[in-house]
Amino acid sequence: MDRRSLIKQAGIAGVLAAGVAPAVHAQAAVRWRLASSFPKSLDTIFGSAEKFSQTVKALSGGKFEVSVHPAGELMPAFGVVEALQNGTIEMAQTAPYYFTGKSPIFAFGCAVPFGLSARQMDAWMEHGNGRKLMDAFFDQYNIKSASAGNTGTQMGGWYR
Known about the structure:
Elements: H1 3-25, E1 30-36, H2 43-59, E2 64-69, H3 80-86, E3 91-93, H4 118-127, H5 130-139
Helix pairs in contact: 4-5
C-alpha cells in the first residue's frame, strides 16, 4: 500500500469514527435501584452492595448509577423478589434461602445447614453446573442472578 492510499483510508476511517462518536455521548445515564434484604448496620454485607454501586459508577464514567437501599427503605426485607418480578426495582441484594416458602429450591442458590463450604459452593456454581441449574430455576421468577459474596456454610439448622 502506498503512502497516499494509507492517508486516504485513515482519513475516511477518521470521518466515519467522528460520525459515530456523538451517538455514544448522547446516551442518557442509566439509573437503577438496588433494594437489599440487609440493614445498613450489617456493614460488611450491606457495604458490599455500596462498593458494587461505586464500582459500577466508576467503570461506566458515571453513565450507570445504582442507588442502594437498605432493608425496609423501599420495601420489607423479604419483599425484594416480588419487587424484582413486578419491576418496582431493577436489582436486589439478598440471600435466596429467605424465599424457601416459595420453593425449597431457592436454598440451593445460597447456603444450607450442614451444606457446602464457601469454596465448595463456588466450585459447584462455576464448574459443576450449579449456575446453569439455578439460572433455569430463577428464570421462572424472571430473575437473573449473580454471585456477589459468600457467607459460608450455615451453622446448625432451620427451626420453627
